[in-house]
Amino acid sequence: MKLKHLESSLSSIDYRFRSPKVELEQYPTCAHLAAAVVWTAHARGDVGANKQVLDLGCGTGMLTIATAIMAYEDALLNQSEDEGEEGSNCSVKEPLPILSLDCCSNALEQAAENCKEIEVDNMVEFLKAKLSFRKKDDSKSHCRYQRGNHKTKRGKNSFRHKPRLKALNNDEEAGDNDAVIECVNDGIPLRDGCVDTVLTNPPFGTKQNAGIDLAFLKCACRLSRQAVYSFHKSSTREHVLKKAKEWHMGAEIVAAMKFDIPKTYNFHKEKNV
Q1: Quick one: three-class SS letters along the chain?
Q2: Residue 127 burial (CB < 10 Å; 0-12/13-18/19+)?
Q3: Distance from C-alpha of 158 to C-alpha of 237, rounded to nearest angstrom
Q4: How far apart are CA 185 and CA 188, in angstroms?
Q5: Which of 51, 95, 188, 229 could be 71's S-S partner, Cβ–Cβ 3.0 to 4.6 Å?
Q6: pTM for this predicted structure
Q7: Cβ neighbours for 207, distance < 8 A, ≥ 6 positions apart
Q8: Pairing state of beta strands 53-56 and 124-129?
Q9: Mean pLDDT for the chain overall
Q10: Is 66 buried (19+), middle (13-18) or exposed (0-12) by CB count in 10 A?
Q11: Which tens digit of pLDDT belongs to each residue from 48-81?
Q12: For residues 140 and 13, what is the distance between their CA atoms, to the nearest angstrom?
């Protein structure tokens, strides 16, 4: 599938949060941005029918849906190849389910509705969990978890991180080239290295949430065994790359993109930021 066709498939989705929560820094991911990132991840072999993908902080589901579309296209292509080899009709092998996680019930409900509208709801499993983020003045953190179906111009860099990481559940000792992310309780009830690829468009990490963007990234690196695609403000580029180096992760800037934010909250003065 061409990039323009993927973006067109996403263009009809109601991607804006209906009741955005400023404390969660809920800003929508537009069709152009979601399509560009997922298409690139697919071209690099990190998204597809045979890849287990997690959308960490899924919001209204744009990255999830784009991933589902590309995975289904892969499955159809694989079917055609199998039919050509065997000379008979073959059923479409279902792609691996996509995990879509968020802490906001309203966002999960909207994401589920969007998936149903695009007819990919049978390919997605929704999870409700909240990342435990300890601010400098916090003494406690907590976790909420629920599994199951729900009724259904700021510059940002898109980074791709390659975790050279064995699941921490392994009995093998870590070598010098393995990641050294500290094993902490981040509140996300998924085991280390449980998915191939994590896609995440985390909160910016501004003001009262300073540092939460790196908390999302750290969690994503823990969960992924192959690659992480993460969005960050261009002003934090050097800091993010420094952290990746500290965690012994390979990192590269995949693209520098304009994150066009429509007026979402009362304190926004312009139509677009």
Answers
A1: CCHHHHHHHHCCCCCCCCCCCHHHCCCCCCHHHHHHHHHHHHHCCCCCCCCCEEEECCCCCHHHHHHHHHHHHHHHHHHHHHHHHHCCCCCCCCCCCEEEEECCHHHHHHHHHHHHHCCCHHHEEEEEECCCCCCCCCCCCCCCEEECCCCCCEEEEEEEEECCCCCCCCCCCCCCCCCCCCCCCCCCCCCCCCEEEEEECCCCCCHHHCCHHHHHHHHHHHHEEEEEEEEEEHHHHHHHHHHHHHCCCEEEEEEEEEECCECCCCCCCCCEC
A2: buried
A3: 10
A4: 8
A5: 95
A6: 0.77
A7: none
A8: unpaired
A9: 79
A10: buried
A11: 999 999 999 999 999 999 999 999 999 888 776 6
A12: 38
Tokens standing for 66? 């784009």
Biggest distance spanned by C-alpha atoms of the chain: 66
Helices 3-10 and 31-43 cross at an angle (nearest 10°) of: 140
* CA–CA separation, 245 and 261 (whole Å): 30
* pLDDT value of position 262: 59
CB atoms within 10 A of CB 68: 27
Q: Greater confidence, 17 or 151?
A: 17
